[in-house]
């Protein structure tokens, strides 16, 4: 099957790393794993973050121009058998996919779609209405965040139009078996004392929710003075100087942006992943941590529970509660046996529920049914 792929918020070949890019690439991989030919249809970005109706109308017109071009191209060459759009929400609607699918007479599929009724009549009303229309007209909606289902399902003509996948990723090499060797190497490279717990986090350093999570993490760590530890932070971005200032006088080691191989090694060598998850959709870094058997303490935001099993692979705390976050983190630092149990469960559940193969097994028959009936 030939699939036209589109991500209206950020194209999967963007040079800027993010969880959104990671998920888009993972979806393309799983479609290819199903045996399909996947091509990026357009890099047009519809994101309008300011709530400017005039800009939303302008983006709609730009999107319609892209539709005309794509329809001409597809009708004169080889047309796709299916259109697949990833991540549709009120700030980044899909102005292209539904129209192209209708013109070509092919199924339209949307993955990770969220519907926010409170946006009706507000500054994003233009985009909001398009999101509603997209959901109602989709032949298949693939949910990746279980919390989205409650507002999406009422718009569907048939309940079976929605299928739910757990967040997934291609299985990386498991470095946990080399943990002691990694700790020895990383200790020498970054000056990390091996005898204390290593707390690890990885996230972009940008204004908004990410910075709020970093600030909350610093606040939580400042609440205790007794336990010795090291916090390892991987990430970079425009507000890095502000974030470094927030962690002044704390035992934090800033490593900057690291590639995936380095990140997985750091996760395997660490004792606990810590992230307050303010306004987090679900957090692919949490899933990456579990792939290396690293337990997680996170704020219970969005679909984080779809990844972190509370009291099994980690602990979820109320979002924004620095005191609760601190108590859990340092309570686990005092309980290495509990951390080890969580580590084993994290790796096992990742392999059972969150791999590319698991997603393929669920998605493949749904797509075949759309095209072949």
Strand content: 15-25%
Helix content class: 40-55%
Choose one word for the global shape: globular
Identify the CATH class of the largest domain.
Alpha Beta
Regarding quaternary structure, what we see is: single chain
Q: What is the radius of gyration computed over CA atoms, rounded to a whole number of angstroms?
A: 22 Å
CATH topology of the largest domain: Rossmann fold
CATH architecture of the largest domain: 3-Layer(aba) Sandwich
Biggest beta sheet summary: 6 strands, parallel
Order of the strands making up the biggest sheet: 2-1-3-4-5-6
Please report the distance between the alpha carbons of the first and last residues.
14 Å
Overall SS class:
alpha/beta
Number of domains: 2
Q: How would you characterize the overall build of this protein?
A:
The structure is a single chain. This protein has 13 helices and 12 strands. With 373 residues, the chain is of the alpha/beta class. Helix 1 crosses helix 13, helix 6 packs across helix 9 (260-269) and helix 7 crosses helix 11 (322-333). It is globular, with a radius of gyration of 22 Å. The model has no long low-confidence stretch (mean pLDDT 96). It has 2 domains: 2-169 and 355-372, Glycogen Phosphorylase B (Rossmann fold, 3-Layer(aba) Sandwich); 176-352, Rossmann fold, CATH 3.40.50. It starts with a strand and ends with a helix. A 6-stranded parallel β-sheet has the order 2-1-3-4-5-6, sandwiched between helices. The protein has a 6-stranded parallel β-sheet with strand order 9-8-7-10-11-12, with helices on both faces. The protein has helices at residues 19-33, 53-76, 97-104, 125-137, 149-152, 179-190, 209-221, 240-246, 260-269, 284-291, 322-333, 336-353, 356-372; strands at residues 2-6, 37-40, 82-88, 108-113, 140-143, 162-164, 198-202, 230-234, 252-256, 272-275, 296-299, 314-317.
């Amino acid at each position: 099957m030939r699939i036209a792929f589109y991500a209206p918020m950020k194209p999967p070949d963007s040079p800027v790393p993010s969880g959104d890019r990671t998920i888009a690439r993972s979806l393309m991989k799983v479609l290819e794993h199903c045996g399909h030919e996947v091509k990026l249809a357009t890099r047009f970005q519809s994101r309008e973050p300011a709530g400017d109706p005039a800009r939303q109308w302008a983006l709609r017109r730009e999107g319609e121009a892209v539709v005309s071009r794509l329809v001409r191209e597809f009708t004169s060459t080889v047309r796709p058998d299916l259109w697949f759009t990833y991540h549709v929400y009120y700030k980044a609607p899909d102005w292209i996919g539904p129209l192209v699918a209708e013109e070509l007479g092919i199924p339209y599929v949307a993955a990770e779609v969220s519907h926010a009724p409170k946006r009706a009549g507000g500054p994003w009303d233009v985009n909001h209405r398009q999101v509603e229309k997209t959901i109602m007209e989709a032949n298949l909606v693939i949910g990746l965040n279980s919390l989205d289902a409650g507002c999406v399902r009422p718009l569907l003509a048939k309940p079976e139009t929605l299928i739910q996948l757990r967040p997934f990723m291609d299985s990386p090499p498991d470095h946990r078996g080399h943990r002691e060797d990694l700790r020895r190497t990383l200790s020498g490279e970054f000056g990390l004392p091996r005898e204390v717990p290593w707390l690890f986090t990885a996230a972009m350093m940008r204004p908004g929710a990410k910075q709020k999570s970093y600030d909350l993490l610093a606040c939580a760590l400042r609440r205790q003075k007794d336990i010795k530890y090291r916090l390892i932070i991987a990430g970079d971005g425009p507000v890095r100087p502000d974030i470094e200032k927030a962690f002044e006088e704390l035992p934090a080691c800033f490593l900057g942006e690291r590639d995936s191989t380095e990140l997985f090694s750091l996760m395997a060598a660490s004792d606990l992943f810590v992230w307050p998850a303010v306004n987090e959709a679900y957090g692919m870094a949490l899933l990456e941590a579990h792939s290396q058997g690293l337990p997680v303490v996170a704020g219970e935001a969005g679909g984080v529970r779809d990844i972190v099993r509370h009291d099994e692979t980690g602990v979820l705390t109320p979002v924004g509660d620095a005191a609760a976050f601190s108590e859990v983190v340092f309570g686990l630092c005092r309980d290495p046996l509990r951390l080890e149990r969580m580590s084993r469960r994290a790796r096992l559940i990742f392999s059972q529920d969150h791999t590319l193969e698991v997603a393929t097994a669920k998605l493949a028959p749904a797509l075949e049914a759309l095209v072949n009936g």
